[in-house]
Every structure is written in structure tokens, then in C-alpha cells.
Amino acid sequence: MIGFFSPTIFEVPPTLLYKTKTFGIGHKRAVALARKLEGSPFSKILIFGCAGALHENIRSGQIFLVETLSTGVRMEATDLFPNLPRAKLFSSKTIVTGTEKKREIQSLTQASLVDMEMEFLWEAATSATRKKFIFIRGVLDELNDGLFSMPYRWLNYQKNISATLRQNLRISD
User: How many domains does the chain have?
Assistant: First the structure.
């Protein structure tokens, strides 16, 4: 049994709207979710949502499986998403905007994406829960974008995350 989680309802594809629990944005909410997931009956815990790009070649709407965290932690491989590109993720306690700040984070961490939850969730979780995690991130803002710079980016994310989850999990509308 797979548990589906996302920071906000806006990041949930329509296909999974009634199967997904939202937990809120940021460090504190991620830590609270980790505590709630202790001893959960799920065989896999799929957490999806948005991230910002830290490389020029990453585009809005692209979907990535988080393979590595900026702390060096390597996520366990999953056969649920064999065709998704892999990414290294950095989590920030604050919203990251501006090209220079994104370049600085990329230079320090070598990460491809930035979000506000996944590393904090990982750190707060038990080792048994960590083994169940699958982190998927869809790119909302590109390297040179400000956060939410264009409304269509949200629709692009929704379309691509829906297609990715439908294809890999064989979920129908």
C-alpha cells in the first residue's frame, strides 16, 4: 500500500486528489509529518510537490525522482519510477528566489533542485520510515525565474506530474 503526501493541495494532481494527504509547507510541517508517519502501515511513502531549478538546463514542468539529498544521503532506488530523471535536492528553510541565490546554493551543494521540505522530513524520520520514502519533485520555477513568475507554470507542473504518476503507478482518471 502506497501513502501519498504533498505539501499543498495545489501540488496534488487531480488523479490523486482524494488519495493524497497534505501536510503544509516548510521545515516545521515536514518534521511534524515525519512524526505522524512513524509506524505507518504504508509499504511506500510517495511525497510529491514542487521545486525550483538550480541549473539553466532544467525547465518548468520537468519531473524528477530525488536520488540524492544535498547532505550526501542517497535515497534507496525504486522500481516504481524507472524512467524518471534523477536529481540531487537541497531543502531551504526560506523561499529561494533570484538567480544569484540559486547559483550560490548550487555551487555550495551541487544540487539540481531546491525545495522547503524533503531534507527536513528525512532528518526527522526514523530509519524504518526512511526506507519507504520516494520523493518526486516537479519544477515550478526555472533558474532565472522569480517564484511563480508565470501562471502557466502551475498548469505545466500539474499536467506533467499527473501524466508521470498515471504512467508509473497505472492510475486512471
Answer: 1
DSSP sequence for 119-154: HHHHHHS-HHHHTTEEEEEEEEE-TTPPTT--THHH
Who contacts 62 (Cβ-Cβ below 8 Å, separation ≥6)? 85, 138, 139, 160
Q: Specify the amino acid at residue 171.
A: I
- Least Cα distance to 111 among 81, 77, 135 occurs for 135
State the chain's mean pLDDT as an integer: 86
Enter the DSSP assignment of 74.
B
In sequence order, the 6+-apart residues with CB closer than 8 A to the CB of 9 are 17, 22
Domain that holds residue 141: 2-169
**Residue 172 CB neighbours (<10 A):** 5
Q: What is the mean pLDDT of residues 151-166?
A: 72
Residue 13 per-residue DSSP state:
-
Quote the pLDDT of residue 79. Answer: 72
- What residue type is 129 in one-letter code? T
CATH of the domain at 99: 3.40.50.1580
Q: What is the pLDDT of residues 41-88, one digit of tens each?
A: 999 999 999 898 999 999 888 999 999 999 988 888 667 888 889 999
* Residue 127, C-beta contacts closer than 8 angstroms, at least 6 positions apart: none
